[in-house]
Specification:
The chain is α+β, with helices and mostly antiparallel strands and 395 residues long. The protein folds into 2 domains: 2-180 and 349-392, Aminopeptidase; 189-326, Gcn5-related N-acetyltransferase (GNAT) (Aminopeptidase), CATH 3.40.630.30. The chain is built from 13 helices and 13 strands. Strands 1, 2, 3, 4, 5, 6, 7, 8, 9, 10, 11, 12 and 13 form a 13-stranded mixed sheet that branches.
Amino acid sequence: MPVELALEFFASLESLPELAAGFESLRRSAKTDRAAGEAEVFSGADALDAVEAGWRAIEREGALSTPFQSFAVAAASLPAHLAHEHEPQIITVREHGETRAILPLALTSMAGARVLRFFGDPLIQYGDAALSRAGTDAHLVTALLAAEKLGADAALFRKVRNDAKISRVLSRRAQVSRVEEAPFVDLRRDVSLSSRDARELRRYRRRLAEQGEVKLHITRGSDALSCVQTALELKREWLASKGFTSSVIGDEAWERVLTSLVTENANLLACARLEAGGRLAAIEVAITHGKRWHAFLGAIDPAFAKCGPGQVQMADTIAHARANGFAAYDLLAPADAFKRVIASGAISVRDYALPFSLPGQLAVRAFRFAPQAKSLLGKLPAPVRSAAQTLLRLR
């Protein structure tokens, strides 16, 4: 079966002349964008140190679109990138002596090609540039033009929200590889579940209550460390039982990013722990930013699986976030049936691909095919699935 999947992938490729024609068409259409400012590229392990002052200045303006563009997340991600032999490539655009934009990238590989990705990928759940209040699309164009000169074959930009700073520029210059939705709950509105879903939630809550008092605990900082470690352990066990793999969970370097965000950035991560009768039933690790609560990682104790602990934990965490002044509970992409049930809205999230060479076009095809391959692999028996994922390098 893995061989058949690989053959399906290569069969989906266009002929090389068509790939080349598409690449030239993309390059011609990109020339219409206006550029502004001067770009400078900082590479290697010291790149973040070189741009820290400008990055933190943009943060102080409150100009970041999500917490995944914070300097703290980038600094925590640096050791993981280096452990995987990814080369940091941080592009800054300055004008009148001020930093207008920062496009943080890492040079990696895919399908035999050298590719640029957002710094922090695969851990970050939304990708974007850091743009100052005085920054414009023209400054982001300058950053992308600089990216073209870094010797990569392609740039693969994952999980770009429709309202991301870089979204408008990428929509004009790059190919859309995938479209998903990120549901959210607007906590400023009094949104109720349907009568059927509300009854289901009450039923789950009664089942949990049979085990004892149902209580939600919220922790931050060092107090949340053991909670985060438990969430990771439960998630690893669940993935193993299903025969799934993850680029983050089970990878020591990327898991250390999460634990470092707990211990070194006490206000960034929160852990919601639901207990029934004093026993752990469900956990959620969240990344908070301003008035948005991002539900980053969820896990349950299998012993409570029939009691719907994840649903109860989410309902109680939403109530906590609303009571504590949060404006939105972000369920992140992709959307699933349960997320749609509790959400009051959703925003489109796109993967973009920008090829710079013919090998880059092939990498773009692999990038586009990867979600389809993962879906096909999900139908395989668990003992076969992990080996197939490793063979096709779809982790």
